[in-house]
Amino acid sequence: MSKYSGTAPKLTALAAALVALVIGPTMVMAQDVANGSATATVLTALSVTATAPLAFGNVLQGVPKSVSKAAAEAGIFTIGGAANAGIDMYMQLPDFVSLADGSDRMVIAFSATDANVDTTGGGVPTAFVAGDGYADEDPHNLPAANLSDAGAANIYLGGRVIPTVDQTAGAYSGDIVLTVAYNGS
Q: For the residues 50-55, what does the mean pLDDT come to?
């Protein structure tokens, strides 16, 4: 028997392994990799300004006085933000106005049609013009709206004070708070 007789099976096994190694990678599926990205644009922050107070002027004891939302004495709020962005608005209205020292209060009331929302954003507001947006809105439940192409809107507010017959003389005031937020539409 030859000294190389045991080597033939080892060479055959080595050759088979080498063939499997060469053929094996050709059976692997092709792969590819792609990189994507995430982007976002943060919109302009909203601004809300109380442009004009709801001014009832001189009020007589026992005589209710109203101010129209279309009058020069109407309360005006100006909203600025991203062009055409959707907004939600919430107005917190007082039930009373009071003297600075808190010694007396006078009822203030708002009807379901005491607000107008102008979404045309037509410059510095002075008085609401019919057709400029949403007329006869409930200030307790303002509608969602979209800012104008210039990113603006105005709210006009009317109301009514109801003094008692023995209302204390003096200057009365109360806070009207408007909260505005983007709604994503």
A: 95
